[in-house]
Amino acid sequence: MPYPKRNADDGGRYQPRTFAYSEQLPFAVEGKAQRDDVLQEILKQLYIAIRAKDFSSALHRTIELRGWLGLKFEMAREQRAKLVKLYYSLALAPGLGSDAADEFLRMVLTLTRKDHYLKPGKDLTLNWRPLWNDIKAWVLPLEVPMSNRKRSAKQLLRLCANAHTYFDPTERRAMLEEFLPFFSADKPQNAFIVVGVLNALLPSHPAPISEPQSQPGDFFPTLFHLWSIVNRSEAFDISFIDVLSRMARDHIHCSHVPFGSHGIFTKDQSDLIFTAILRLTRIPVRQGSSPYTPLGEDVGAGKYIRKDKKKYP
């Protein structure tokens, strides 16, 4: 069975498809030039609609674009990155109707669904602040001006799951300076909110070696200190294991980050991680014992940024 091969970078997918769809069909299909002509016409009409602020027409062109992608046609990485930025800004733009905003948001998810389309930093970098401003309206409503409409918290969390990969890792210090002032051990609800936001927005890819205060050794002590403050919380354990595991995964091939017997962590940090993993298994130690204390984790705005346990067990 034939399968696609690529010997040189053609500006498309980093990982070629394993199944040649167009070659297996029992009828002739459009050639690459014709596919690209159709795409350019869709994008032209989309641009005209957006310039005219005719978002109902832009919504129609977006549905056409989704159909074009659904036919397994290939799009250049540069074009895909431009579309992601466009739809990301449209999805978070103020004043849009809920139907248009939700469709634009779903388009961002479609274009960034798999990492073999776009590489973080190299092909695409997104601004985290517009998304944070929308999340803040849900989790910290007293800190932002009143707005006429808030986007669905569930949709924003889905957007975070894809978008945080493309946030600039050099912005980690700015993120911590923005989020941490809201953390308070005296107010557990705020603590859960901050930790949930860190898990949802903090980028995990390596920062350049020349960038200060953005390397794991610079901000890991802060994260582990926050974890130690509330060390018998299931929500804290899940959130920190989630974000730290992504950090470890994305720094494996980073040459300028020290990698020792405990990976990018120190021995104490590694011990804390594995202790939390054992707590989550809920292995009984003695009768009637529980590794966690009831802290009201499901109360307050922190529930809006907590992942669905059925989808992310």
TrEMBL record:
<dbReference type="GO" id="GO:0010499">
    <property type="term" value="P:proteasomal ubiquitin-independent protein catabolic process"/>
</dbReference>
<dbReference type="InterPro" id="IPR032372">
    <property type="entry name" value="Blm10_N"/>
</dbReference>
<keyword id="KW-0647">Proteasome</keyword>
<dbReference type="GO" id="GO:0005829">
    <property type="term" value="C:cytosol"/>
</dbReference>
<dbReference type="Pfam" id="PF16547">
    <property type="entry name" value="BLM10_N"/>
</dbReference>
<dbReference type="GO" id="GO:0070628">
    <property type="term" value="F:proteasome binding"/>
</dbReference>
<dbReference type="InterPro" id="IPR035309">
    <property type="entry name" value="PSME4"/>
</dbReference>
<dbReference type="GO" id="GO:0005634">
    <property type="term" value="C:nucleus"/>
</dbReference>
<dbReference type="GO" id="GO:0000502">
    <property type="term" value="C:proteasome complex"/>
</dbReference>
<protein>
    <submittedName>
        <fullName>Proteasome activator subunit 4</fullName>
    </submittedName>
</protein>
<dbReference type="GO" id="GO:0016504">
    <property type="term" value="F:peptidase activator activity"/>
</dbReference>
<feature type="domain" description="Proteasome activator Blm10 N-terminal">
    <location>
        <begin position="12"/>
        <end position="57"/>
    </location>
</feature>
